Amino acid sequence: MNTLFAKTLRKLREGNGLTQKEFGQRLFVNHSTVARWENASRLPDATMIPRIAKCLGVEAQDLFQLAAQSEESPNVIIVDDSKVILSDGLAVLGEVLPNATITGFIWPLEAIEYAKANRVALAILDIELGTASGLDLCRTLLQINPRTNILFLTAYVDYALDAWNTEASGFILKPLTPESVRKQLKKLRYPFSSGGGTDA
């Protein structure tokens, strides 16, 4: 839960003299949705935050940063059937996401079992996983937890269209680099704290 975002949102709303119902009407959402944002049981998605910021007269980037501040270490997984790429990817993610619990998998089924037992904030998936498909793995992970951010990792640009037809947040061409990860972190559907400062 992100109580800091919830408390800040309530303070800003009340500072603008708005009830939850009035605030919801301006955003075209039900007042119960506003209530869930303010009791920290739910975060608004990335498309809603700029609308909230405009309504409350604040900078959207400030709200994005608040939303990204998780109170627990996020679980991040990377799935690739190449041990070398997996090892290099773990090193890159460890640099960019120092506060995260990062786990690598060669086998998709192991990643699925992990996701069932742990709330995964971010999954970086190779599209070609031997005989398996990263696209299918994406769909399975999102069935387990719809708020998992998915980034596809591949050496083939041809897969981009298929990747965008899923609920993925982004697409990275191999090799994985700190810069490419940081760029995609800014575009996640459900932001979380990277532990690397506001630029990470």
Short note summarizing the structure:
The chain is α/β, with parallel strands linked by helices and 200 residues long. It is 47% helix and 16% strand.
Describe this entry's structure for a reader.
The chain has helices spanning about 5-15, 20-25, 30-40, 50-55, 60-70, 85-95, 110-115, 135-145, 160-165, 180-185; strands at about 75-80, 100-105, 120-125, 130, 130-135, 150-155, 170-175. It is elongated and about 55 Å long. Helix 2 crosses helix 3 (about 30-40). The longest helix has 14 residues, at about 85-95. It is of the alpha/beta class.
List the helices and strands and how they pair.
Layout: H1 3-15, H2 20-27, H3 31-38, H4 49-56, H5 60-68, E1 75-79, H6 83-96, E2 101-105, H7 108-117, E3 120-126, E4 128-129, E5 132-133, H8 134-144, E6 149-154, H9 160-164, E7 170-173, H10 178-185
Helix pairs in contact: 2-3, 4-5, 7-8
Keywords:
alpha/beta, 434 Repressor (Amino-terminal Domain), elongated, Rossmann fold
Give the helix proportion (percent range).
40-55%
Distance between the termini: 21 Å
Determine and state the CATH class of the largest domain: Alpha Beta
Structural class computed from helices and strand pairing: alpha/beta
Number of helices: 10
The total number of structural domains is 2
